[in-house]
Amino acid sequence: MSHTSINPSTLLAPTPVVLVGCATQAEKANLITVAWVGTVNSKPPMVSVSIQPIRHSYHLIKESGEFTVNLVSRELLHATDFCGVKSGRDMDKFAECNLTAIKAEGLTLAPAVEESPLYLSCKVRESLNLGSHTMFVGEIVHVGVRSDLIDEEGKIHLNKANLVAYAHGNYYGLAERLGFFGYSVARPEVFKRRMEEG
Question: What pTM did the predictor assign?
């Protein structure tokens, strides 16, 4: 099958869609929807979020040096979309979306979203002005996981979180599990057992 050439663009898909929490001493807690987010390092654990300088949240993160990354479930999707099209300059997004701001462990100002299945507390290690966006690289100093997603052995079951992804302007639910890291070389009995474990 052939490919058609199009203009260069950020057509990486799917990507996570997350709610980024931020605040300063002077300004109330805010949320911004971000799809330009990714892991950048494992030791120490770090993620990046890319935000346009014209956005209200940009200045909050720049000033405070911290932010949270809150994963989005189907139940949070309507609020997530709303937080991407409305500005925190004009309203309290937590109140408008009926969401609960909680203290993010390891941070002083940036809130986490209580309704999120999982949140990452991040301290800005570096910011890079790349053109239209500034990329904030944050070191993850704490991870908060909703208790019902952890079994008695401490294993996290994000398959039960109803997570959502973003692809070219649309949201999609993550549903069917197709494999696990290394499944292509796993023995048949290992594949069967791991897939049954979930």
Answer: 0.94
Helices (H), the chain: 56-64, 77-85, 93-96, 188-197
Q: Rounded to 5 degrees, what are φ and ψ at 122?
A: -125, 135
10 Å CB burial of residue 34 (0-12, 13-18, 19+) is: buried
- Half-sphere exposure in the Cβ direction for 83 (13 Å, CA): 30
Tokens at 147, concatenated: 């208790």
Q: What is the distance between the alpha carbons of residues 63 and 74, in angstroms, rounded to a whole number?
A: 31
Give the model confidence (pLDDT) of 24-67 as tens digits: 999 999 999 999 999 999 999 999 999 999 999 999 999 999 99
Domains and CATH numbers, the chain: 15-197 (2.30.110.10)
Q: What pLDDT is stored for residue 198 in this prediction?
A: 66
Average pLDDT of the segment spanning 131-145: 98
Q: Quick one: which of 46, 45, 61, 48 has its CA closest to 18?
A: 48
First to last CA, the chain: 35
Sheet of 15-16: strand order equals 15-16, 164-167, 170-173
